[in-house]
Write a structure and sequence with these properties.
It contains two helices and 19 strands. It is mainly β. It folds into two domains: about 140 residues, Immunoglobulins (Immunoglobulin-like); about 110 residues, Immunoglobulin-like (Sandwich). Strands 2, 4, 5, 7, 9 and 10 form a six-stranded mixed beta sheet that branches.
Length: about 290
């Protein structure tokens, strides 16, 4: 549960405003971490302050949140079942200019809810355009990590791990890595990429930059690369293993791909040798032809 703080570091910009140059109201807190038992109920509050020069009527709603494979949060309806568990006590509320009020949201978790993490946003926005201008409508969102208490499951799956099968003269090896959190809770991540020779012996390893903890049911895509030209001098068959350690239990999942590698210096050397041999053969033929012509 405590790792939620690390997740939220990537969501500093979750206070969405359209346009970003205008801020006529503020909300707090910007985020919540809530744990509720199945069948339980809890109340959380948002403070809304009207910084506009006129009185405003605000409306309140709940939206789902998911993170795409690039790590960007996406808000919308019908994303998470927990959207139906959280309701504002009032649909609208008038706040005078310079004033602030607290708005309560009630969380009711069904008795049959499975343990795990859910992500919703508490949205606040003026009922009418600010200053009478349609382009000055804004929306702020407070992120809620709703944890249903109970035994959770940590399960990570590597969906894709691949690179080019033949690398001729390419000193940098590029790969595509995609993995999914099939568990019911967000998991911290660490990873390595290990290059092995044809005998399966480890040659070298590099760390993977994994990013923030992966939310439950989320997918992430990475494009790691290896500067092999600085480490490998011989052509041949190599295997490359991606290994990810995840969760509080430090479970490990891995995948392996294979490739043929021909270093650039070998190609250059081979090309020079071939050029010299070709030149010698041509020169020898010319000498023989002159000799026989005499």
């Amino acid at each position: 549960m405590r790792i939620f703080a690390a997740i939220l570091l990537s969501f500093v910009t979750l206070l969405l405003w359209e346009p970003l140059t205008v801020r006529a109201f503020t909300i707090s807190p910007a985020r919540y971490l809530v744990t509720v038992d199945p069948g339980g109920q809890q109340k959380i509050s948002l403070t809304v302050k009207n910084d506009e020069a006129e009185n405003l009527v605000f409306k309140f709603s709940v939206t789902g949140m998911v993170v795409d494979s690039a790590g960007r949060p996406r808000f919308g309806n019908g994303i998470d079942e927990a959207e139906n568990w959280v309701k504002p006590e009032v649909g609208t509320l008038l706040i005078v200019s310079g004033g602030q009020k607290k708005i309560n949201f009630i969380i009711r978790v069904p008795s049959g809810a499975s343990p795990g993490a859910h992500y919703v946003g508490l949205t606040v926005q003026p009922e009418e355009p600010l200053g009478g201008q349609e382009n000055l409508i804004g929306r702020l969102i407070s992120l809620v990590n709703l944890q249903v208490a109970g035994e959770v499951n940590e399960n990570l799956e590597i969906i894709r791990w691949r690179g080019k099968k033949s690398l001729t003269g390419q000193e940098r090896w590029d790969f595509d890595l995609e993995f999914k959190n099939n568990g019911t809770i967000e998991v911290p991540l660490s990873g390595t990429v290990t290059v092995k020779n044809w005998r399966g012996q480890d040659l070298f390893s590099i760390p993977l930059t994994m990013g923030n903890p992966l939310l439950a049911h989320a997918t992430r895509s990475l494009t790691p690369s290896i500067e092999a030209g600085q480490r490998l001098n011989f052509p041949g068959f190599y295997s490359v293993q991606a290994q990810i350690t995840y969760g509080k239990t430090k479970q490990v999942v891995s995948a392996t791909t294979t490739l043929w590698y021909f270093p650039r210096q070998i190609l250059i050397t081979s090309g020079l040798i071939l050029l010299v041999l070709t030149t010698l053969i041509i020169w020898r033929k010319k000498i023989r032809s002159k000799f026989y012509s005499i």
